[in-house]
Amino acid sequence: MILTIDIGNSNITIGAYRDDQEQRLFLSRIGTDRKKMPDEYAIMINSILRLHGHRAEDLDGAIISSVVPPLSASLKSAIRRLKDIRILTVGPGIKTGLNILLDNPAQLGADLACVSVAAMDKYPLPSIVLDMGTATTISALDRSGNFLGGSIIPGVRISLEALTARTAQLPQIELDHPPQSVIGSNTIDSMKSGVMYGTAGMIDGMIRRYRAQLGDDLTVIATGGLAPAIVCLCENKVILDEDLLLDGLYLLYRKNTK
Known about the structure:
Elements: E1 2-7, E2 11-18, E3 23-31, H1 38-51, E4 61-66, H2 69-82, E5 86-89, E6 99-100, H3 110-122, E7 127-132, E8 135-141, E9 146-154, H4 156-166, H5 187-214, E10 219-223, H6 227-231, E11 239-240, H7 244-257
Parallel strand pairs: 1-4, 4-5, 6-9, 7-10, 10-11
Antiparallel strand pairs: 1-2, 2-3, 7-8, 8-9
């Protein structure tokens, strides 16, 4: 069993794959906390494994991607407390199979590398990947599989937190479901309309611009914790793939351990 861990700014996503069947066994999320010690993370990972009917003794390897570098060492130590296995980290030196056409290829984030590897493996090219987490990122692959670059946009929750922090009379709200109409009839529905329909409209506009550069046959994939709440409101066809990043991690583990 291969453990896959993505350390994001807000959440740590944990999954596991049966290496003989290339099958994801589970997906779980915990909050990112820089103050937690390796022992605490070890207890949490062990509990998650048991929650899904598995044991630390079943682990054969692990791979980590992180946009919070200080936590990478903590998660490595946590895994080794459970079992002494080979642990890979997505970063310089790891084989991705991507031809990265950035001005400085070393600047490509681990999370963007993972979703791009998975998108290239699972979907037709050209494609873009919308990763909707703390930030909303767009990654572009041309029809030859070259990683061209993309866009970085303030995430849905960042925008909402900025709105409530800077306005005295607007409350904090949950984005559990969109209002029935884009025209909100009360403060909460008006805020949901602005944030949710507004983000969907922005995404539709970006898709049109990317399609103009990459071609009408562009495949659009969305992933990330906030994607399900927004993608359903988009006018363009967007494939929702919540497993994309972990699938990319597993593919990278396979590429680098054959």
